[in-house]
Amino acid sequence: MRTLFLNGSTTQLGYRVAQRLCQHPQVRLIQRASTIPLEFTHGDMLVSTAAAQQLVAWLRAEQVDTLIHLDVIGEDAPAPNREAALQHNVMGTLTLLGACAAASVRRVIVRSSTLVYGARANHAAFITTDTPVQKARKSGLLRDYCELDTLTQIFAQSHPHTEVVILRCASIVGDQAWSPLTAYLTQRNPPMLIGYTPRIQVLHPDDAADAVVLAALGDACGCFNLAALDPIPLDQAIRLTGRQPRGVLPVPFALAGALGLRKQLTGWFADLEFLVYPCVADLRQTIATLQWQPRHNAYDLLRGLATLHTPARATTPHALPLREAPSGERARD
Predict the structure, then answer these.
(1) How many beta carbons lie within 10 A of that of residue 291, not counting itself?
(2) Is the pLDDT of residue 179 over 60?
(3) Which of 214, 240, 309, 332 would suit a FRET pair with 109, their CA atoms being 20 to 30 Å apart?
(4) Where are the domains of the chain?
(5) Model confidence at 137: pLDDT above 90
């Protein structure tokens, strides 16, 4: 019997992972909405040393074998506060990794994004996992993913006895799940830069959950890309949803970005480079090593957005019982 701890069980991905793991006879699953030990001091969110030490003691006492970290602010719904999201996503991940090392947790699974590769004219047609993370000039959630992905890679190199898996997910689309890309595509007329139509990738949340479970129960280590098999040009993706793209001149848009005019930049799902160049991840290593195969194709996922007339919101049921975790709150048995 293995003890798995799922951090972020009430996220739209975490709920699906919990459903699958609860049915496994050889798994003892402990789950919590979030166990990142943070505290507020004078309006700033900081890592609580005492809470971090409590987390280490709890991981040891529960004999946690595997930690699955899916708790990322801004992925299931717009982040309410940028600074809080940065501290939670980056510093929180660093704290969890440190606790896993101190408690000798054997295996760690961390969610990341395929967008950490950036979008460049000289990218390979399909980007492999050995491509460096592009951290320059990133903003918002993508910046957090780049930082937490890099921190996790450094952790893996510094702790060779810990089995580390980074799952780089394409943008979630389907089954009423919210994501920045879904919010963009479900606008009345999603804006596009005139003259550019980069290819994009999407991922159904059930396919992502299948990969998390395979990673948690298997023995493969390293970075793995997750996406549906069909990269699609952005303009075609918009039309598959039943909408028509709205052309925007590149020069004024780039100037607005350089001047920090955020009002002119609303409605976009990613940094400017992703509206110009493609970022298409290679899935061959994931399919061969994790024995994972996406069951949903991109065309059907995008057609499914045709019935959504306003940006989707996450619809995550909260029916699974929660085991108590060291957050200071009571959990249901």
Answers:
(1) 10
(2) yes
(3) 332
(4) 2-175+203-229+281-295
(5) no
Question: Residue 325 has what pLDDT?
Answer: 53
Give the Cβ contact number of residue 252 at 10 Å.
Answer: 11
Q: Which has the higher per-residue pLDDT, 199 or 87?
A: 199
The 3-state secondary structure of the chain reads CEEEEEECCCCHHHHHHHHHHHCCCCEEEEEECCCCCEEEECCEEEECHHHHHHHHHHHHHHCCCEEEECCCCCCCCCCCCHHHHHHHHHHHHHHHHHHHHHCCCCEEEEEEEHHHHCCCCCCCCCECCCCCCCCCCCCHHHHHHHHHHHHHHHHHHHCCCCEEEEEEECEECCCCCCCHHHHHHCCCCCEEECCCCCEECEECHHHHHHHHHHHHHCCCCEEEEECCCCCEEHHHHHHHCCCCCEEECHHHHHHHHHHCCHHHHCCCCCCHHHHCCCCCECCHHHHHHCCCCCCCCHHHHHHHHHHCCCCCCCCCCCCCCCCCCCCCCCCCC
Q: How many Cβ atoms are within 10 Å of 218's Cβ, its own excluded?
A: 15
The domain 2-175+203-229+281-295 is placed in CATH, from the list 3.40.50.150, 3.40.630.30, 2.60.220.30, 3.40.50.720, at: 3.40.50.720
pLDDT reading at 329 higher than 50: no
Main-chain dihedrals φ then ψ at residue 288, nearest 5 degrees: -75, -40
330 pLDDT exceeds 60?
A: no
Residue of 48 and 121 predicted with greater confidence: 121
pLDDT band at 328 (very low <50, low <70, confident <90, very high): very low
- How much is the pLDDT for 267? 65
Of 149, 67, 68, 61, nearest in space to 100 by CA: 67
The dihedrals phi and psi of 225, each to the nearest 5 degrees, come to: -90, 140
Contact 6, 30 (CB under 8 A): yes
Mean pLDDT, the chain, as a whole number?
A: 85
* Average pLDDT for 214-237: 96
